[in-house]
Write a structure and sequence with these properties.
Length: 385
């Protein structure tokens, strides 16, 4: 799979918002606008890494907005948006991404579908931009606010972000046209002679530019929180003789160990996938691929903490976790309360929100033959808006 990196441009001053904080740090439902943007992108399994381009004066504001998210260190922008994007692109060179998604920090409602359409178009085009067709009648004005005529809207589109590019192509285009004042990165690509594909945008993917935009965005969160349910399942086989297995973050004495790239905790893996599923954030393999040596032998509480942090960053909360462990041995029931307490502790919720059950398959199948352990989990969560 091609590696895609998101570059979030958040170095502007937002003068049209008037006095006060830059628009990307204004409050939106209890969190900075930029926090919503970063959290939504961080939960997208198609994006391998995220870097923000910020103003040097905003480092403390950015650190607060990005707290708890797994992001690359930010870089400082330049005098113009184009210069800021160029500096951000240069900083990504060491990552050697295939694709880069350039996104406005003040577009907090970007959805997974838009990102997927942009990335899909990059398989066959050097550039792709989400856009919406112009449906309103367009008027040209003259001095005094008098209409000077009607503009033909045929073939006209409103461009949005994230705008996607093959990294090498957009890097070369920015170098070739450094110093020019172009309105967006697609215009830079066009100036370099690159073909720009248009894909369907999303009406909700608005850019917050004025105070009126911010008020409309706040109404997005005025509805009661919505409920979502995710399901997760994991299986690990027994391997060599040992002294115990990890289940639900608890080491249980046993004469064999479970085989896995990490600590093979099937219970925590299943819960992690359930939470990721509830927020449409892919699965554990997207966030922690077994091909990455960093996760070899890693304690699975790290994975569950990550899933919980993604949910929290989106403004969501866990309502309930229901876990079922399926095995003949070891016996789980003597350790049930310890497992409940450990899961609750990792997720920062009360034990009353965690259910742990255990069952067997009456000697049937691989668990009945005591060849491994399986676990299933259901996560019920709330998300705002």
């Amino acid at each position: 799979m091609a590696k895609a990196v998101a570059l979030v441009v958040a170095a502007g001053r937002g003068h049209r918002m008037g006095e006060g904080l830059p628009k990307q740090y204004r409050d939106l439902a209890g969190r900075p606008v930029l926090r919503h943007t970063l959290a939504t992108l961080a939960a997208n399994p198609s994006i391998a890494a995220i870097r923000a381009v910020i103003h040097p004066d905003d480092r403390a504001l950015y650190d607060q907005a990005a707290k708890g998210l797994s992001l690359l260190d930010p870089v400082y922008g330049g005098r113009t948006r184009q210069e800021s994007v160029f500096l951000g692109l240069e900083s990504l060179g060491v990552l050697t991404p295939d694709f880069v998604l350039v996104h406005d920090g003040a577009r907090p409602f970007v959805d997974c579908g838009t990102v997927s359409r942009v990335l899909a178009a990059l398989e066959h085009n050097p550039c792709a931009v989400p856009a919406l067709p112009i449906v309103d009648t367009l008027k040209r004005s003259q001095v005094g606010g008098i209409a000077a005529g009607t503009v033909d809207r045929t073939g006209l589109w409103r461009a949005q972000t994230p705008q996607g590019f093959r990294y090498a192509d957009i890097m070369a285009a920015h170098r070739a046209h450094s110093g020019r004042e172009l309105t967006d990165d697609a215009a830079v690509a066009e100036a370099a002679g690159l073909t720009v594909a248009l894909v369907d945008g999303d009406e909700d993917n608005v850019k917050i530019t004025t105070n009126a935009d911010l008020e409309r965005a706040r109404r997005h969160f005025s509805a009661p929180p919505g409920f979502r349910v995710g399901m997760g399942m994991d299986v690990h086989a027994f391997s060599s003789a040992g002294d115990g297995v990890w289940l639900g973050g608890v080491l249980i004495a046993h004469d064999r160990v479970l085989e896995g790239h990490s600590d093979a905790d099937v219970a925590l893996h299943a819960i992690t996938d359930a939470i990721l599923g509830a927020i449409a954030a892919g699965d554990i393999g997207h966030h922690f691929p077994p091909s990455d040596l960093r996760w070899k032998g890693m304690s699975s509480d790290h994975f569950l903490t990550h899933a919980g942090a993604l949910l929290s960053a989106l403004g969501g909360a866990i309502v309930h976790i229901d876990l079922t462990v399926i095995c003949e041995r070891p016996r789980v029931s003597p350790h049930r309360e310890r497992i409940r307490a450990r899961i609750a502790d990792i997720l920062g919720i009360g034990e009353s929100r965690v259910s742990v059950k255990a069952t067997t398959t009456e000697g049937l199948g691989f668990t009945g033959r005591r060849e491994g352990i399986a676990a299933q989990a259901v996560a019920t969560v709330t998300v705002p808006g």
